[in-house]
Every structure is written in C-alpha cells, then in structure tokens.
Amino acid sequence: MVLNFMGKLKKVSSYQKGQKGENRAAAYLRLKGYRVLESNYRVPQGEIDLTARKGSRLVFVEVKARKDESHGTPLEAVSPLKVKRVSAAAAVYLARYSDSYSGCRFDVVTVGPEKNFLGFLKVRHIENAFSTDGQFNV
User: Fold this and answer.
1) Model pTM?
2) Torsion from C-alpha of 94, 97, 102, 107, nearest 10 degrees
C-alpha cells in the first residue's frame, strides 16, 4: 500500500513491484559497469527481465525481488520452468540480434528481503547462475 497524491492508500500491483525491483537491478548493474540494452524483452516463448552487455559478453538477467520470505527467497523463485522460458526467449533474442558477442550467460539479480546498513533492500548479483539445460550454478 502506498499513498496516492490525494493522501489515500492505494494497493501496489505485482507488476509495479516487479518494475521497481527491475529498475533497482538495472541501476546496480550499471554501477558495476554493465550496459543495460533492454528490459522486459517479451516473445511468445518467454520473457527476459534485463538484457545487458559487459565488454563483448551478452548477459540475460532474471530479476527476483522480495520484501520478506513469506513466499520463499528470491532465488527459490527461479524455477526450472522459469529457466526454460528465459532460455527459450534468449534463443529468439540471439537469432534476431546477431551482433558480435563473445558469448552469453544467464545471471540472476535478487533484491531483498535482507536490508543493507542504510535500511534499503539488499541487491545480490549471481553471475552465470544457470545454464540453458536447467543446471543451477549456485
């Protein structure tokens, strides 16, 4: 719940919460030297939250945000089905955009539920978190 401009409480949608987490993740990646190319790349096969580049490597990023652990940790929310859908969307992306990349990988950025020393939700970046065959590297 948040206050709207009239001072009334308004429910925040899951989509809005997801966008906030993705914005935080994108800002974090930029601070680490990544160039964010695209967000919310959607095709019938699936969706990629963020597509980024670091050097000549293309990085597909799945973002998971949690305010608390009542629905599990952010990393637990990356299911084998989600990996399959992200991998399928990545294959379409690579077929459409055949720029010269030295390779690609799949990362996960989690936002929360822990907080940092300033009280903000902690951001964690797991590079090469999973492979296209559904194998987790965490």
Assistant:
1) 0.83
2) -50
Strand partners, 26: none
DSSP letter string, 87-126: HHHHHHHHHH-----SEEEEEEEEEEEEE-TTSSEEEEEE
- Per-residue tens of pLDDT for the chain, all 138 residues: 555 556 666 676 777 777 888 999 999 999 999 999 999 999 999 999 999 999 989 999 999 887 766 666 667 778 889 889 999 999 999 988 877 778 899 999 988 777 778 777 788 999 988 876 655 665
Which domains can be identified in the chain, with CATH numbers? 34-130 (3.40.1350.10)
Strand order in the sheet with 121-130: 35-43, 46-54, 57-65, 103-115, 121-130
Which long-range CB contacts under 8 A does 74-77 form with residues at least 24 apart?
74/108, 74/110, 74/111, 74/112, 74/113, 75/108, 75/110, 75/126, 75/138
